[in-house]
């Protein structure tokens, strides 16, 4: 009987050994997939890699981890899936398990699969960010003012005891936080959702790694485009440099802006009751040794829409107040009860933004919008409605496995 049963015992032992080998190879394949995802993930930041490059980067790491062994016969053409916004890459590896004994009893070795996803963690969670480290408050919301940040946060880098101060207003966001203290008055009309986080790590300027583009020769000097006209002021890139204080709008003028960058050098840009019917792919850059302020005064019930370029030196920035050669920049203002809808960022790293008198700054339809300024004040029923944005040109976040 022992002689008769011995082959069966040996076969069973052999099958058990092979199953153990398959489990080991499956575990090793998962480690290889994790490494492959991280290897491919290093290509995410540039947003230019091809499928072939992703595959090569993934397999270089997978083979390095596995030594081309201990995972069965590894297929060298992994499946790669890159998220549409280049935030994650998923890698699936396939391997034919080894078989030593099971083939003797007619059992086929399985095909093993393992998947992993790597992604760039967003360094800046705030789409409304005050950069001043000392201002008190750096973000002030008073007298029925409101800031709403959809899918992102509101944050102050100030370490003061009133880094953010709320008084008869509303803060609603994915997160609210400050290096210092988020404070509020005893007003019964305060709304703050969610509960804020104090003593938080500072958030870096997401646009710190880019410099304001340089303007060419002056096209206009201290110009005012306010006279009534039967045809619109049609601004083009052939004359796009405004030197000194510049005023646009008023007296029923209608204005259009061809795509591109419009520079205001050493002066303020004031839109006063402007009717802008075209400003797609446009960035207004206030620059020079002493950049002026962006001033918006409008009483129209219809929103004005400005969307930033998607490529070039001002990609993703609709309004850009550069830093002066020394000191701080003058405060930009919005008032007058109208809505300015931006596709892109309002960026004033050395200046304040004051929104009051029922003026609204919001995201243009189908676009994202963020505010990055030194300090921010929203009062008198003024409002900001920002939403999640990765800030074009921002530094890449830390790469990590997310699945």
Descriptive account of the structure:
The structure is a single chain. The chain has helices at residues 2-41, 51-66, and strands at residues 73-74, 79-82, 88-96, 111-120, 126-130, 139-142, 146-156, 164-167, 170-178, 182-184, 191-193, 220-221, 224-225, 233-235, 241-243, 246-248, 254-257, 260-265, 269-272, 275-278, 282-287, 294-297, 304-307, 317-321, 332-335, 339-355, 360-363, 369-378, 383-387, 399-401. The protein has 403 residues and is mainly beta. It has two domains: 2-120, no CATH class; 126-387 and 394-398, no CATH class. Strands 5-7-29-27-26-28 form a six-stranded parallel β-barrel. Strands 1, 2, 3, 4 and 30 form a five-stranded antiparallel sheet that branches. Strands 14-17-20 form a three-stranded parallel sheet, with no helix packed on it. Strand 2 and strand 3 form a beta hairpin. Helix 1 packs across helix 2 (51-66). The longest helix is centred in the N-terminal third of the chain and has 40 residues, at 2-41. The chain is elongated. The mean pLDDT is 88.
Topology summary:
Elements: H1 2-41, H2 51-66, E1 73-74, E2 79-82, E3 88-96, E4 111-120, E5 126-130, E6 139-142, E7 146-156, E8 164-167, E9 170-178, E10 182-184, E11 191-193, E12 220-221, E13 224-225, E14 233-235, E15 241-243, E16 246-248, E17 254-257, E18 260-265, E19 269-272, E20 275-278, E21 282-287, E22 294-297, E23 304-307, E24 317-321, E25 332-335, E26 339-355, E27 360-363, E28 369-378, E29 383-387, E30 399-401
Parallel strand pairs: 5-7, 5-28, 6-8, 6-28, 7-9, 7-29, 8-10, 9-11, 12-15, 13-16, 14-17, 15-18, 16-19, 17-20, 18-21, 19-22, 21-24, 22-25, 23-26, 24-26, 25-26, 26-27, 26-28, 27-29
Antiparallel strand pairs: 1-3, 2-3, 3-4, 4-30
Helix pairs in contact: 1-2
